[in-house]
Amino acid sequence: MSTTTSRRSARRILATTVALGATAALLTACSTSSDTTTSSDTTTKPAAAPSPARPRVGIILGGGGESGVAWETAVLSALADKADLTRKNVDVVVGTSAGAIAGAYYSAVDDLHPVVEAQRAGKGISAPVPSSGADNPIPKEMIAALSSTEGTIEERGKRIGALAIKAKTPIASKDLVGYVASALPGKDWPAFDFRPTSVNAETGKTVLWQKSDGVPLAAAVASSAAVPGFLPAVEINGQHYTDAPRTTFSADLVKEKNLDAIVYIGMPTPTLSNTVEEEALTKLEAQGLKVVRITGGQGTDKLIKEALNPKIKPLAVQLGLRDGDDAATNVAALLNH
User: Fold this and answer.
1) For residue 251, how many C-alpha atoms fall within 13 Å in the half-sphere facing its CB?
2) Which residue among 35, 95, 125, 172 has its CA within the 20 to 30 Å range from the CA of 7?
3) Residues 6+ apart with CB under 8 A from 245
4) Beta-bridge partner residues of 242
């Protein structure tokens, strides 16, 4: 799923370093032109203003099944190309379900183009068990639980978690983790701050995994993408984790990372992950946070309807590249505000 003082100190050090660099450049320029300046010339040039520190930016990636992985990866690739939304301009990525897989690639791979093309060709990471095309492979009992709004989100997560633990699935937890490990760009956590989200099936509590937790990357990502009733709940340190509804985490993330802006990328898929942070982001916007939402344009309703159909991935890539292009101007403005 550093402290504020240290971050502010780091930013002051950065600003001081930039200012010293600018002063050094000015002194060098004066030195190289001294042959043409008389001793009586006392004119001084104003010191160059230090470059402003870039805004601190987070990316939140929602769920979306097979189509969501392809769509989000394409959106991220387009934004990297058209808006320079690369890791050098981003401080943290949080990914849920499909977003955990897309986020793992974004956090570790410098060039997303091959990943996107693999998805377009149907060769990218996919569910390790077959689904029945456009038909929903999730049992009706689980669909009802996922769609329910009764009780708190944690109570709902606990109910879904109980069903997920006892559900009969084609593969076991260790097999799912092994498959994810073989499909990720690396077995180790990236140096970049990447946090896949999941839900503790016993308690219903949301967790944002990170490197410091000591959990294997593949297990963390698998637990985020473990669609209940379709894929097994993932066992980690004696507890089970599954892809159930999450509580909102944007406010805590913004506070912890001292973020100035968030790019939210995710189609509305309530029966898969229910992780849309719209309400939380709206409240944060009222407090001054800059937010760009990318939730899918015309045609993405088909991607939502057939979220677990791998045959839909070429269309998902096409629409993701389009939606990323359409959002590039707003994202670029956010990065430069």
Assistant:
1) 10
2) 95
3) 146, 153, 156, 157, 160, 199, 273, 274, 275
4) 199
Tokens of 18: 């930039």
- Nearest Cα to Cα of residue 63 among 210, 226, 258: 226
Strand partners of residue 226: none
- Give 138-156 pLDDT, tens digit per residue: 888 998 998 888 999 999 9
**CA distances in angstroms from 91 to 84, 149, 264, listed in the order given:** 14, 33, 14
281 near 262, Cβ under 8 Å?
yes
What number of other Cβ atoms are within 10 A of residue 135's Cβ?
A: 10
* Cα gap 275→94, rounded to integer Å: 11
Q: Give the global pTM.
A: 0.83
Closest CA to 265 of 126, 89, 64: 64
pLDDT tens sequence across 229-262: 999 999 999 999 999 999 999 999 999 999 999 9
Q: What backbone torsions phi and psi does residue 283 show, to the nearest 5 degrees?
A: -65, -40
How far is it between the farthest Cα atoms of the chain?
89
Identify which of 191, 194, 237 has the alpha carbon closest to the alpha carbon of residue 214.
237
Token pair of 238 as six digits:
């004696």
- Extended beta strands in 158-227, E state: 194-200, 206-208
Identify the CA nearest to 289 among candidates 325, 328, 253, 329: 253
Of 94, 112, 111, the C-alpha closest to 103 is 94
Alpha-carbon span 289 to 45, nearest angstrom = 37
Amino acid present at 251: A
Q: How many helices (H) and strands (E) does the chain have?
A: 12, 8
Q: Which two tokens stand for residue 277?
A: 């942070």
At 182, the amino acid letter reads S
What is the number of residues in the chain? 337
Burial class of residue 298 (count of CB atoms within 10 Å of its CB; 0-12, 13-18, 19+): exposed
Distance of alpha carbon 95 from alpha carbon 41, whole angstroms: 60
